[in-house]
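Go through this:
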Amino acid sequence: MDLVSMPTLERSTTLILPLNPTIGATIQNIGSADFGAGGNIPEIINAGVGIDPDIGFGRLLFDIDYDDVGNYLYYTGDSLWLHTHMGIQYQFPAILTLSAG
């Protein structure tokens, strides 16, 4: 008997959803402006990632951002919750959008 034509007892299905990842970063106030007695504006670096999975019915977005990577703006320490912002957005049809975060 040919191995190719042998029946199998196992069937499996794999659902592959392309996640369409996005990575971004910003640098604000490049060079740290100094206003003498008025204080200075520090350079701030922000970074984030997002996914836009193909769900076939509308559009779904998940995003997470980490603000002020160098901890110059918030003088409260390295609090993860103070710096992290998360959001989700669902769009269907093109004119109706539901956002949270």
About this structure: The radius of gyration is 23 Å.
